[in-house]
Design goal:
The chain has 6 helices and 3 strands; from the N terminus they run ααβααββαα. The protein has 150 residues and is mainly alpha-helical. The longest helix has 28 residues.
């Protein structure tokens, strides 16, 4: 039983690493960090400015990671910050013209590839993938909490 579980866990970890590597290679192709690539992607597909808090929550990234990536994107003039009209304490990140151009080359093809790949799964497989992935993360979060709460 333990051997089978170990084999399955190794298989899953390998697939997860391959998935991360796909996204990492896209980011590298455009000279971006993984976090910068995720931010460009998010701002592109959301078509609206996002707060740092929203970016952190959406991608489970730390505030430090998002802040650092945003600073690099701002310095490169791909992203600009502006105050949120409903709360001037909050700054919203938005793509600049050069950021939109970069996102057209990086985020758009990636997003389209994701949709096409997902579309190639049956509706049942799409649902199963989302449901099982969510359940696995929930169970793993619980088990990690149990393992480190001693």
């Amino acid at each position: 039983m333990l051997e089978r579980l170990l084999e399955q866990q190794v298989r899953y970890n390998k697939v997860h690493k391959e998935l991360n590597e796909l996204y990492h290679n896209v980011a590298l192709q455009f000279g971006l960090s993984d976090a910068s690539s995720i931010i460009l992607y998010t701002l592109y597909i959301s078509e609206k400015p996002c707060s740092q808090k929203e970016l952190c929550e959406l991608w489970s990234l730390t505030k430090t990671t998002v802040n650092s990536a945003l600073r690099k994107l701002i310095k490169s003039e791909y992203v600009a910050l502006s105050p949120d009209p409903t709360n001037y304490k909050v700054k919203l990140a938005r793509l600049t013209k050069s950021g939109e151009a970069l996102a057209e080359k990086s985020a758009r093809p990636l997003f389209e590839a994701e949709l096409k790949a997902f579309e190639r799964l049956s509706e049942e497989e799409q649902e199963q993938l989302a449901t099982i992935s969510k359940k696995h993360v929930k169970l793993l979060r619980e088990e990690i909490g149990n393992a480190f709460d001693n």
